[in-house]
Amino acid sequence: MPAVTLDDVRAADALLDGVVRRTPLEPSAALSELVGGPVLLKCENLQHAGSFKIRGAYTRMSRLSEAERERGVVAASAGNHAQGVALAARLLGIRSTIWMPVGAPIPKVEATRRYGAEVHQAGTTVDEALVHALAHERETGAVLIHPFDHADIVAGQGTVGLELLEQAPDVRTVVVCTGGGGLVAGIATAVKAIAPHVRVVAAQAEGAAAWPASLDAGEPRALARMATMADGIAVGRPGDVPFGLVRELVDDVVTVAEESLSRALLMLLERSKLVVEPAGAAAAAALLEAPEAFEPPVAVVLSGGNIDPLLLMRVIRHGMAAAGRYLGCRVRVPDRPGALSGVLAVLAEADANVLEVFHTRTTAALAVDEVEIGLQLETKGHDHATAVLAALAASGVRPVA
Hints:
Elements: H1 6-16, E1 25-27, H2 29-35, E2 39-43, H3 53-62, H4 66-71, E3 73-76, H5 80-92, E4 96-100, H6 106-114, E5 118-121, H7 126-140, E6 143-144, H8 151-157, H9 159-167, E7 173-177, H10 182-194, E8 199-205, H11 211-217, H12 240-249, E9 252-256, H13 258-271, H14 282-289, E10 298-302, H15 309-322, E11 326-334, H16 339-349, E12 353-360, E13 370-378, H17 382-394, E14 398-399
Parallel strand pairs: 2-10, 3-4, 3-6, 4-5, 7-8, 7-10, 8-9
Antiparallel strand pairs: 1-2, 11-13, 11-14, 12-13
Helix pairs in contact: 1-8, 3-5, 3-8, 5-6, 8-10, 9-10, 10-12, 13-14, 13-15
């Protein structure tokens, strides 16, 4: 028997009635145009505590015995599972202790504390924080609420899939981000049992992609290192419980680049007015990279919206650069009065906004009567950036490679 069945997901759905929000399914004009058919956004970023995690956490914790509740619970998380566990614990009257990596986003740490959890920070990844959570479990008897590696967690997350099929019964493809695998395993369990023709695709960050190698090996394999802005899916080893379900039920696992995560986050913010964290944008990023690979109607799960405002600023800048909205270039002009104003006039005529200007006069590559001007420009996209460079060249300004 599989670790989780449709009956388990339906039981979790009944348990969560009145506890979680039935999140909206919003059309995305931008992604629909790209894919050539309807694309719908499942907005778990609008869920209580800002992500889908409350579904699995509450399902797991509501089934604890009275003796287990008395001992309290412990969890390890970069933020979303932490908030889900802390909120579920508050609703159920259970004491909670959360271990979070050092460097976890401050808003996620503070939100977890506001839900009533005792927060400790250790390690630099979720896997390292989990070591401390396991030690706390051994020392205190607290019950570990794993982020993804438990049947109740997977069943709870699978309720997203039930909602999806009720809201969009004609869906053909479901795209879900994945780290440890709990969300995509749960969704695939529900979707494949009810509508086996629907294709389920998991999307991982390229810098933390443990699933491809693990699936090739036939068992969960740990990554030696990870590097991604998508902290919510930066998991070095797939869970044992989700692994069998993903291997059996998920049709494909794809990876997405950091640049695509930034572009997707920016697109969702600009075009759909939705604030999404990098992990939550991974499924949308998969559509940006290969729109022809997804048969519409497509449902894209936006798994969470808990993003540090400072990271949001950096990601927006990164996404704008990836979209061709920023242009950095250097030009050489005669070192005489009026040369800079001539360059700026060309840029004004080309409708490029100048953000920064800096001069270099002391390199050996320059002639004695030359100056190098560095420019940081705001443009309207790749085509406009190309046109701006062409306008500079046509004016006689010499670009520097």
